[in-house]
Automatic annotation (TrEMBL):
<keyword id="KW-0808">Transferase</keyword>
<feature type="domain" description="Nucleotidyl transferase">
    <location>
        <begin position="6"/>
        <end position="286"/>
    </location>
</feature>
<dbReference type="InterPro" id="IPR054566">
    <property type="entry name" value="ManC/GMP-like_b-helix"/>
</dbReference>
<protein>
    <recommendedName>
        <fullName>mannose-1-phosphate guanylyltransferase</fullName>
        <ecNumber>2.7.7.13</ecNumber>
    </recommendedName>
</protein>
<feature type="domain" description="MannoseP isomerase/GMP-like beta-helix">
    <location>
        <begin position="292"/>
        <end position="344"/>
    </location>
</feature>
<dbReference type="GO" id="GO:0009298">
    <property type="term" value="P:GDP-mannose biosynthetic process"/>
</dbReference>
<dbReference type="InterPro" id="IPR049577">
    <property type="entry name" value="GMPP_N"/>
</dbReference>
<dbReference type="GO" id="GO:0004475">
    <property type="term" value="F:mannose-1-phosphate guanylyltransferase (GTP) activity"/>
</dbReference>
<dbReference type="GO" id="GO:0005525">
    <property type="term" value="F:GTP binding"/>
</dbReference>
<keyword id="KW-0547">Nucleotide-binding</keyword>
<dbReference type="Pfam" id="PF22640">
    <property type="entry name" value="ManC_GMP_beta-helix"/>
</dbReference>
<keyword id="KW-0342">GTP-binding</keyword>
<dbReference type="InterPro" id="IPR051161">
    <property type="entry name" value="Mannose-6P_isomerase_type2"/>
</dbReference>
<dbReference type="InterPro" id="IPR005835">
    <property type="entry name" value="NTP_transferase_dom"/>
</dbReference>
<dbReference type="InterPro" id="IPR029044">
    <property type="entry name" value="Nucleotide-diphossugar_trans"/>
</dbReference>
<dbReference type="Pfam" id="PF00483">
    <property type="entry name" value="NTP_transferase"/>
</dbReference>
<keyword id="KW-0548">Nucleotidyltransferase</keyword>
Amino acid sequence: MKNNYVVIMAGGVGTRFWPFSRSTNPKQFHDVLGVGRTMIQQTVERFEGICLQENIYIVTSEEYYDLCKQQLPYLSDDQILLEPSRRNTAPCIGYACYKIASKNPDANIVVAPADHIILKEEDFRKRISMALQYSETNEVLITLGIQPTRPDTGYGYIQFTESGEDIKRVKTFTEKPNLEWAIKFVKSGEFVWNAGIFIWNVQTIKKAFELFLPEMAEAFDGINDEFYSGKEADALKKAYPQCKNISIDNGVMEKAENVFVVLSDIGWSDLGTWKSLYDISAKDEDQNVIDGRALLYDTKNCIIKTPHERLVIINGLDGYIVAEYDNALMICKKEDEQKVKEFVAVAGTKGKEFV
């Protein structure tokens, strides 16, 4: 396993999970499922047996350094990569891969978000191991593909060829289509969701950056000698402005011809919204999801997440989100959850302490 590395992206704010997820303490650092471990802790544990602990890297924002150290105290400072600014996933992944390459040019890398749910962890490990074995000896960019259950416009869609049993060549890669195309993709039965989990050899991804994002490749190549040194942070501040604000999907995966997909039934959810948490959670006889101390009367199809030290009494709600954290309480119809970003914007005008 010495050449296997895991890069966990943990710099997002998770606005759609407000008021639980805040800019100072986003959802990846919370115990969202109520299992006694935060999402980032669960993500790291998921890779046990895939790579050595010293080969796990977290890419996050400077303001989340303390949270990372508190929740993952066994990681060294060299394993916590602090971005000087948020510029989407391509610079985040480029930074980590170029840093790892400077230490181990034979590295085989898994890139995963810190805030996804994987319910079938053994199946997940088998799929990741299969992909790592393939990427070790083939010049390929691999992603995990999930069977879509609805025409969601928030995911990338992968169309694959039928050749190959487990690892299939990608025919087309479309990042976040509009609703009309998403409906067509799901109806066709030829598309899977891109889970946002990637596997590749470090030399393969470097070639992809050089081909499709040459300015970014040049920026990280230019600070190669500063990685793992006291000069790294200052070098990054000079390199990051040269990096385009772009996702790895738009910047590389849609353009590359050597993209493959591993079809995966792993109980996956990106846990992007309150409804996605509702969908995967255990429910009572009235189809309510409850995390907290609540007395419910004539209430059904709701998700309630409130502080355990507070008693909440709810009467007559159907299909609502009731979420309280710290100094904010939100009561919102589940069907209107896309308005949460609007709520956050307005809450910010009332004071920074609310966002």
